[in-house]
Amino acid sequence: MENLVIDGSTSSPRVDFDAARGHLLLSGESYPENSFEFYKPLLNWIRSFLEQSPQEVTLELRLAYLNTSSIKALMDLLDDLEEAHRAGRQVSVNWYYDEENDRALDLAEEFREDLTLPFFIIPTRIGV
Amino acid sequence: MGNLIDLRRSLSREGALICFNGSFSHSIIEELGKAVKHYLESQDLQKGATMDVFSVYIEATQNVRNYSTRADLAACGRSEAAEGIIVIGREGERHVVSSGNYVLSSDGPALAERLNRLQGLDKAGLKALYKEQMRRELPPGSQGAGLGLIDMARKASEPLEFSLTPDGVGLLFFSLRVVI
After folding, report:
1. Containing H/E element for A82?
2. Span B110-127, pLDDT tens digits
3. What is the DSSP string of B157-169?
4. Contact at CB, B143 and A69, closer than 8 angstroms
5. How close A9 gets to chain B, by Cα (Å)?
6. Strands of B84-91's sheet in order across
7. Is the confidence at residue A128, as pLDDT, over 50?
8. Domain locations along chain B
9. Is A6 exposed, middle or buried (CB count within 10 Å of its CB: 0-12, 13-18, 19+)?
10. Is A11 in CB contact (< 8 Å) with chain B?
11. Above 80 in pLDDT, residue B1?
């Protein structure tokens, strides 16, 4: 399966989904012109990946800001990983946030409240 | 407009720091957003407070932009319907994000009802409504998640203030004020 790599911009995160390692990275800020269009290929990629490979998945999030439609799209993506986790797959989420940005921490905690998969919230000193 | 002094005075009186009036494109939202962030960072605000103002700015402008590009609004044939205004200002220690745009008269009652409901909720009630909306299936073709107003209300330090003013020729001007 091909990797999915999209360069970041001012309003959209860098995407680096590595199929061989099962490592999915989203990094930057997310308030694209149309969040659902932006996230749709990401959701499709993850769904195919989960169908084709039994591999362990790690989602690494380094998102300093998400607008509400990106939050909704990311929730949909996390729901797919949650389902895979409940079906017995090894799945984990590592959410890195700038320790000075407590709103990013609040946001991570709100996502975690709705999930049972391993979800680690990790402070970092430098801006994420 | 030969002399901008009156406009400038009235903006200063309102504590305006950054404002934009016209047609919002995504790149204008991005560029103005950078200016808002740089300004707030230069004010030595806590990072969380900066993020609250920035996020209300993004939700407000994207709401204006999404609404202004709707086909049923364009069908009314009024060019100003595609335009909006945003003002980011300061009142003492607080920041205020105000936005304005035209809406169809037929959308007025539902919008007023949503905002009246938000005004009556405390932080816990807003969070519950936010989570409920997050789980709602969206109609196909939705531009937004229907979360913007709830999110602004959660970030605000006072209930959202709004008005809907008939423009006399079939549209309403929707004005929203968010104090952070």
Report:
1. helix A68-86
2. 999 999 999 999 999 999
3. SS--EEEEEE-SS
4. yes
5. 10
6. B16-22, B84-91, B94-104, B171-179, B161-166
7. no
8. 5-179
9. middle
10. yes
11. no
pLDDT in tens, A26-84: 999 999 999 999 999 999 999 999 999 999 999 999 999 999 999 999 999 999 999 99
Geometric angle at alpha carbon A120, from A114 and A123, rounded to 5°: 120
Residues B5-179: name the CATH superfamily. Histidine kinase-like ATPase, C-terminal domain (3.30.565.10)
- Between B74 and A70, name the one with better pLDDT: A70
pLDDT at A127 (0 to 100):
47
Chain B hits for A11, CB-CB cut-off 8 Å, are 26, 29-30, 33
Q: For the purposes of burial, counting CB atoms within 10 Å of the CB of B2, is it exposed (0-12), middle (13-18) or buried (19 or more)?
A: exposed
Domains of chain A in sequence order: 4-124 (3.30.750.24)
> How would you list the strands of the sheet with A23-30, edge to edge?
A4-6, A14-18, A23-30, A57-66, A91-98, A119-124
Alpha-carbon gap: A85 to the closest alpha carbon of chain B (Å) = 19
Tell which wins on pLDDT, A75 or B80: A75
DSSP of B71-121, one letter per residue?
Answer: HHHHTT--GGGG-EEEEEEEETTEEEEEEEEEEEGGGHHHHHHHHHHHHT-
- CB-based contact, A75 to chain B, within 8 Å: yes
Q: Which two tokens stand for residue B42?
A: 């230069």
